[in-house]
Amino acid sequence: MYAARLNRSVIRYAATGVPAAMLRLLSRLDELAPVGVSELAKADGCSQPTISSAVQHLVEKGWAVKTPNPRDARGALVELTAEGARVLDRARRDNGAVIANRLDADPCHGLTEIEAAVVLLRHLLVPTDRESS
Fold first, then answer.
1. List of residues 6+ apart from 24 with CB closer than 8 A
2. CB atoms < 10 A from the CB of 41, how many?
3. Inside any domain, residue 133
4. What confidence tier does 133 reach under pLDDT thresholds 50, 70, 90?
5. Which domain holds residue 19?
6. Deepest of 44, 50, 126, 128, by most Cβ within 10 A of its Cβ?
């Protein structure tokens, strides 16, 4: 719950000019690409028509590209363009700057605690055996 609230707060104050949903989709593409639309919808927890519309918006902005899926002639694979990767990188840097400013202003937590928290968060990103099966 707090991670989601922190994420929303950071995105709001970073003022990247890119809607949070678009940043989330760019990030998913960075993580999974090349990926099919159905798999992307499943990973994002939304419907296939919703993700198709969002992907089309990214394509129109030049942030993603769709290519034929060599394993499924009916489908396409989606991946970031160089411009999409730049937009995502810039947003991540802007979001990181908001976090850095907040950490600088926090007199209660030292660098050792922050480093330990980062290690823990990275560990939590790895699915457990139960989740993988």
1. 44
2. 20
3. no
4. low
5. 2-128
6. 44
- CATH number, domain of 23, equals 1.10.10.10
Task: Report how far residue 127's alpha carbon sits from residue 31's, in angstroms, rounded to the nearest whole number.
Answer: 14
Give CA separation, 7 vs 22, 56, 66, 67, 113, in Å.
Answer: 14, 25, 28, 31, 20
| Residue 36 counted as domain residue | yes
Question: Over pLDDT 70: what percentage of the chain?
Answer: 98
- Rg (Cα) of the chain, in Å, rounded? 17
81 domain-assigned: yes
Q: Coil, strand or helix: which one is 19?
A: coil
pLDDT single digits (tens) 54-76: 999 999 999 999 999 999 888 89
For residue 78, what are the β-bridge partners?
Answer: 35, 66
Domain count, the chain: 1
Hey, what's the torsion of the CAs at 46, 40, 132, 6, to 10 degrees? -60
Please report whether residue 78 resides in a domain: yes
To the question of pTM greater than 0.85 for the whole model, the response is no
